Amino acid sequence: MDGLVGQKRGWWRRFWPAKGEARQRRATAFEAYRQIVARARRPVLYQEWGVPDTHDGRFEAVGLEAMLLMRRLRQAGPAGVAMAQEIFNVMFADMDGSVREQGVGDLKVGKYIKRMAGSFLARARELDGPIDRGDRNDLAKHLTRYFHGTAAEAPSMKKLAEDLLQTDRLLQGVSDADLLRGIIDVSRAEPAGNQYP
Prior knowledge:
Blueprint: H1 3-6, H2 20-40, H3 43-47, H4 55-73, H5 77-101, H6 106-133, H7 136-148, H8 155-172, H9 176-180
Helix pairs in contact: 2-4, 2-5, 4-5, 4-8, 5-6, 6-7, 7-8
């Protein structure tokens, strides 16, 4: 997921609001998304917790982190809902760039992104229940299906499930004001020695 986050191309500038409050909200969402991607790139996910180091695996990992933040933002009232939408917009602008880098033609990109967005939203709805209940085992079964195409539970997915539940709990401790400014401190959820620089 280098696209927008890597800023390797100028194409994304065309979707950036020109000025005012909309521009500031997009900039804040962009910063929040950078933090989401940094967490989704932690080596432990791929080396120990069973996330495939593939394009699809990385997309799913980014989606999980984004989903957790959007869940929390929904609790922050209309401003939080608006910020969640902005993060969604930034995320799928990044996916658009990533898909184009893989050689998907212009005529197919829209359908491809629509399918990815639908998958993301469906997973977010499915995971709300297990996360609300704090049900690590049920969450691990969902994750195994997402990452490995089977409902059989992979032991490593329990560690990923616990990490997601812990992150969700830590996000509850971040103030609405900080979240709306793009300050997302879940550093205590980071396994020691597995942070990206």
